[in-house]
Amino acid sequence: MSGTKNDDRGIFIGERDGLKEVKPDQKRLAPVVVKESFKTGLGLWPKTNIEFRGAAFPSGGDATIDGLVTIPNILSEFNNRLVGVSHGMGTRDQLPETQLSVAESGATTDKMPEQAKELVRRLKNLVEVDYTQHWIMVIVTIGTEEVCSRCTSPNFTALTNAIDILQAHLPRAFVVLLGPIHVSFPHKLKGNLLKSRCECSREASNTLMEQLSADWKTAFEKLQEHVDTNPFRGCPYFRNTANAHGCQLLSLSEAKEKELLLGVDGKVLKKRRRTPERLYTIAISIVGIAFFVVCTLGTVFYQKSKQGDHGRFEIPNEAQKKFEEAQKEEEKALLTRQMTRGMSVNEGLQKSTRRLTGEEA
């Protein structure tokens, strides 16, 4: 894989020897779009807040070229087997992932790496075509909304990271960079109609838009130079899809994701997740927590057992308890009756004795 630049803000990713042979009918995958709302179809119809992605110029495929001029409809005149064309209305997440446009309304250069990763993910999930065997046209439209909303220069680091992601994962791609729209006055070519329409630039000086345009142009030129200086297949200089099996070079972010460390002897080591110190700390923490729980629960259960009226393993039975109480009451009543009878017998004996004593007298 290699990169080369041209004068039309385009970046080729693929074999240099094969660039001259690229033709419209060789593009099996429809142009895929990365960026802002101008390429999502937002605002194509007045008084609507709907993304008409099927009618967007870079990726829309609704109707035909006779009724709707878009890049996919133009390419369809040469190849009617395009994959990934946008159709219908809705946001990126509402439409099927087989539609490869990952543009988002209101997006800025800060979100370009995330969109590049999403594009690569969708390409890898395609079942209709092997993206590694076909040329892909990636259209990056960025800047118009960012300039109009913030009046700032692009995030060059994010731009570079996004292009690096595409170059690392797409063997054959033609990346087209489209910067901010510059609509000038007929009588003043350096003037920009967006100045009076954007909130951040209305009160600014007349040279603001010129400076912003120059900054964006410089960023795109540096981006082309960045791609052009990448080696072809050399390892360990740059790892790509062509040498991924034999090249073990990783970027710093990739090494962090895989938890790799550089050893003392220069070898790459796998970061151990559980060091002895960490294991000891975990073990001591577990023992401490267990001891605290046992002491707390033991104290609670001991205090409750002291207040109970039956043993720990004795199951109280309310019916049995009532029966025992009734039995006690019955025994008490029986004892009382027996005592009453005994007293009556004693009184009878005393009376009989008195009678006998009186008769003898």
UniProtKB/TrEMBL annotation:
The keyword Nucleotide-binding does not apply. InterPro entries: GDSL (IPR001087), PLB1 (IPR038885). The lineage of its organism: Eukaryota, Metazoa, Ecdysozoa, Nematoda, Chromadorea. The keyword Membrane applies. The chain crosses the membrane at residues 279-302. One of its GO terms (molecular function) is phospholipase activity. Pfam families: Lipase_GDSL. Keywords: Membrane, Transmembrane, Transmembrane helix. GO terms for biological process: phospholipid metabolic process. This is GDSL-like protein.
